[in-house]
Amino acid sequence: MRQKGTWDTIPALLYENMGAETIESIRLQAHLVGARPWDPYSKAKYLDYLRNIQHLTFAQIIDFCGGNRREVENYIQAYQDMEGYYRPLLDSDQDFDHTRFSAFVELQAGRITDALLSHDYTKADFAKWVHDRRLHPLNTVRHIPRILQNARSHEVFLKEGAQEAMRVLDVPSVGVPLAEATLEQLARALCRRITSLEYGDMLRLRGETGSEEKDVLFDAKDAIVGLCEDIASSSNT
Question: What is the end-to-end Cα distance of the chain in Å, rounded?
């Protein structure tokens, strides 16, 4: 709501003779952890500037913006990969799509880069897949190891993209009792079922109250998120 007044003057704090480190500290607090944070690409660009232009230590950057060293390193490397391999594919800067940055963050996972190398692909190939929307939606990046490992899904991926490639991967047969299915089989089947959900069914679930189906879905979400957090925590120790 607009405050009444002439706005001829406004209260302000004026800092004079500030050092570069203090200036960067204020910028970080205002944009990275402030009320209106930067988008991930802009954050990564600034972290790269602090580290490789201003030469701040990782400890200084983490003190300013929180997180941990691995997260900062991954963001900086993802930014450098996007600039080095994705931007040169574009006809102009107007074609640059910063929302595809998340794909390059996923690329920093060791199993993704290992899968590329083991199949004679490079980061340049990966960037072209992002540009050509072979990797769409972007969360399909995490499935690259499975896609490339399977000969048929690998072939489909190169022609039609990750989403179609996922359709040809094995899923548990209807004859397998749920109690005997592995976590991988159950998760894969659930992902496929959710992605094929009709819009009308989603609206039905949204409108229902006291629905057992809805309650079970949220229970499953809590269980999966908890497991993934435990796995991520153990991998960072």
Answer: 47
Instruction: Answer whether 0.70 is exceeded by the pTM.
Output: no
What is the phi/psi pair of residue 32, to 5°?
Answer: -85, -35
Q: Helices (DSSP H) in 37-68: which residue ranges?
A: 40-52, 58-65
CA distances from 104 to 52, 53, 61, 125, 159 (A): 19, 21, 21, 12, 21
Calculate the average pLDDT of the chain: 84
The runs of H, that is alpha helices, within 66-211 are 69-81, 101-107, 110-118, 123-131, 144-149, 151-160, 162-167, 183-195, 199-207
Task: List the structure tokens of 88.
Answer: 């040169």
The encoded tokens of residue 64 equal 């300013």
What tokens appear for 37 in the block?
């944070």
Q: Report yes or no: 221 and 187 within 8 Å, Cβ to Cβ.
A: no
Average pLDDT for 26-49: 74
Q: Give the tens place of pLDDT for each residue, 129-159.
A: 999 999 998 989 999 999 999 999 999 999 9
Dihedral, CA atoms, 104, 223, 186, 211, nearest 10 degrees?
Answer: -110
Q: Which residue is listed with tokens 């050509």? A: 132
